[in-house]
Amino acid sequence: MSDATTISSRVLDSLVGAGLLTVEQLASVTEQANARGVGSGVVLAERGLVSAADVASVLEHEMGVPRVDLSSYAPEDAALALVPSAIARARRMLPLFDIEGMLTVAIGDAMDVFVLDEIAASLSMELEPVLAEASAVESAIATYYGDEITPESEPVLELEPELVPELEPDLAPS
User: Fold this and answer.
1) Quick check: helix, strand or coil at residue 160?
2) Number of domains comprising the chain
3) pTM of the predicted model, to two decimals?
4) Could you please report the per-residue DSSP string of 25-92?
5) What is the pLDDT of residues 99-116, one digit of tens each?
6) Are residues 48 and 77 in the same domain?
7) Backbone phi, psi, residue 139, to 5°
8) pLDDT tens digits, residue range 138-173?
9) What's the domain range around 21?
10) d(CA 28, CA 31)
11) Are 95 and 24 in a shared domain?
12) N or C: which end of the chain has fewer CB within 10 A?
């Protein structure tokens, strides 16, 4: 089994524990994902080894990830400010609330759980998923972020200095 320190690895281990994926399949998926530089969820989906329903079942029953009705939740403004709308739209996730550095996000497709580690790293915080209807997530994103992305409404993620390429001398601001 994999090192269960990330959301993805915990889901993969739970899929094995539930008998939906064999240890051999897990090893093969992990090896191929690493070789291609993609997430394990991409390889699982391509191979059709598990369905979104399988992942949702594992999230709910094995990992205790709750299903929520977004009509009952109003995301906190502070949580919305933590995730730029471009990320929320591209990753189909709605930030709901932040409790002591743990950001709870609603996802509409259980397979999206495999990108949460990437998002958590880019935001430098831990994410806790909850499941919601995909259409409700999309509707809520449009409601809370607005229908269109505008530069004024788009929060900017600060990048670590070592991740920003240096400007060539003739391009550097004077």
Assistant:
1) coil
2) 2
3) 0.65
4) HHHHHHHHHHHHT--HHHHHHHHTSS-HHHHHHIIIIIT-PPB--GGG----HHHHHHS-HHHHHHHT
5) 998 999 999 887 788 888
6) no
7) -65, -45
8) 999 999 998 754 444 444 444 444 443 444 444 444
9) 7-62
10) 5
11) no
12) C
